Amino acid sequence: MHILVTGATGFIGGALLPQLAQGGHQVRTLLRPGRASPRLPRGLPVEVALASLTDAAGLRAALVGIEAVVHLAGGERGGSGVNLMVSDVIGTRNLVEASTEAGVRRLVFLSHLGTDRSSAYPLLRAKAQAEDLVRQSPLRFTILRSAWVYGPGDHFTTSMAMTLAASPLVYWIPGDGKSLLQPLWVEDLVAAIAWSLEEDAMVGQTYEIGGPEYLSYLDVLQMVMRASGRRRMTASLRPPYLRLWLRLGEVLLPRPPVTAFWVDYLAVHRTAELSTLPRAFGLQPSRMETRLDYLARQPWGREMLSSQLAARAA
Fold this sequence. Notes:
Layout (H helix, E strand, L loop, with lengths): L1 E5 L4 H12 L3 E6 L14 E5 L5 H7 L5 E4 L12 H19 L3 E7 L9 H14 L5 E6 L2 E2 L6 H10 L3 E5 L5 E2 L2 E2 H13 L6 E5 L5 E2 H12 L4 E5 L1 H14 L7 H6 L10 H6 L18 H14 L1
Parallel strand pairs: 1-2, 1-4, 2-3, 4-5, 5-6, 6-11, 7-10, 8-13
Antiparallel strand pairs: 9-12
Helix pairs in contact: 1-6, 3-4, 5-7, 5-11
């Protein structure tokens, strides 16, 4: 199958491309034109199409000969300054329209748990509008609403490890830290995406998926502290104040490890049924504590500094 992947240079895309290539698929990535060198996995036979999701003509050219699309791209990593209506809604509309014109047979769209048009949080409202555009199209689609995804190079546990290293005494947490999460190992997610491309019974379905356990934010933080070897005292900060602090970080840092969207995500519980992955995908997801070896013995303070310098240079 000839597959176009949007957001392929991100954390999840970096795990998905090898999975698709090993499955015998021909993969094309959609890269937004820019000065920075794209981070594509080495040694993979991957085609590259240069176009943004707002470039209708470029999208049509990128979709020539494509049978399926995996839509991972989104604006949340850009922080509160990103126009989500452009990055997530208009971008998805353009991709859906171009895919329909090109005769694409399958579309898998990655969304978030908690997506809702009436949500108080801009990111989740934007994802809901994007989902509606996918559902209203004539494409054979599958929507995966994912829990928070973790793994090497993520924006979850490694961001925690970096900010722990940069916090000399106290690590500030939003509220009481009791919001429930259902962390999902990245390899389990990409296996579910690959399965969704192949299974006809999943056409027209929306699945809410997560890991095999419900954990509070504090539970996750304690796991990351143990795995990274960095213990810190924790102190509670009301979400509005923490959001202001993070927005200041977005202004001062070229690549902040955490953005204000993170506080929005933790405002309420983000969980799905524990049985969805085993029942619908035949997959037993990994427990988080068994998958955090990548955090050990890493100079996370140096990693944070080097990431800022690289982002500023780019």
